[in-house]
Design goal:
Largest sheet: 4 strands, mixed
Strand order of the largest sheet: 1-2-4-5
Order of helices and strands: HHEHEEHEEHEH
Structural class: alpha/beta
CATH architecture: 3-Layer(aba) Sandwich
Strand content: 15-25%
Shape: globular
CATH class: Alpha Beta
CATH topology: Rossmann fold
Number of strands: 6
Number of domains: 1
Helix content: 40-55%
């Protein structure tokens, strides 16, 4: 346990010169992010093979924050997860893997948990694809959707109201 504790560092600025120097000194092959702040190219371009990120949303339609919530808020039949190669855009990188789960008329927590599990599975598959040199990087196609923000209290109230109405229609 002590070995792990010595390898974990809490830093106020991940783009500070000393942090970039430390990451560079590790000579990483692949960078991985899961729920990070927006990274700058000075950091995500250090690894030889680039950096992969997981995004709980279908791209390019759902970019930004809390996209599982917004997909369900909008009444989408499916919620998606994307493994992408990080670039300087926000959720605009080349797609390595995607998947989706049924969302329509389901409880948010069930969809969220299923999407989380699928996302981890796809992320591991994408890492192995990159490691074995078989990863396919597909550019995003279609219309770029709006950039979603964190929901506000009114959004939650409207969402739960919509969910109740959808569940009532099921029982009729």
């Amino acid at each position: 346990m002590k070995d792990i504790e010595e390898r974990i560092h809490f830093i106020p600025n991940i783009h500070a010169p000393q942090v970039l120097d430390q990451v560079q000194s590790l000579e990483p092959d692949l960078g991985l992010i899961y729920g990070s702040p927006i990274l700058k190219p000075a950091l995500f371009e250090i690894p030889k093979l680039g950096t992969l990120g997981i995004h709980h949303g279908k791209v390019p339609e759902y970019r930004g924050n809390k996209t599982t919530f917004w997909m369900m808020y909008n009444g989408e039949k499916f919620a998606g997860v994307t493994i992408q190669k990080v670039n300087k855009g926000l959720d605009t990188g080349s797609i390595v893997r995607t998947g989706e789960v049924k969302a329509y008329r389901r409880a948010y927590q069930a969809v969220f948990q299923e999407l989380e599990a699928l996302g981890v599975e796809l992320y591991i598959q994408a890492i192995l694809d990159v490691k074995h040199g078989v990863a396919e990087y597909k550019p995003q196609t279609g219309v770029k959707g709006r950039l979603y923000r964190n929901p506000r209290i009114g959004d939650f109230i409207r969402f739960w109201g919509r969910q109740c109405m959808r569940l009532l229609r099921i029982s009729q």
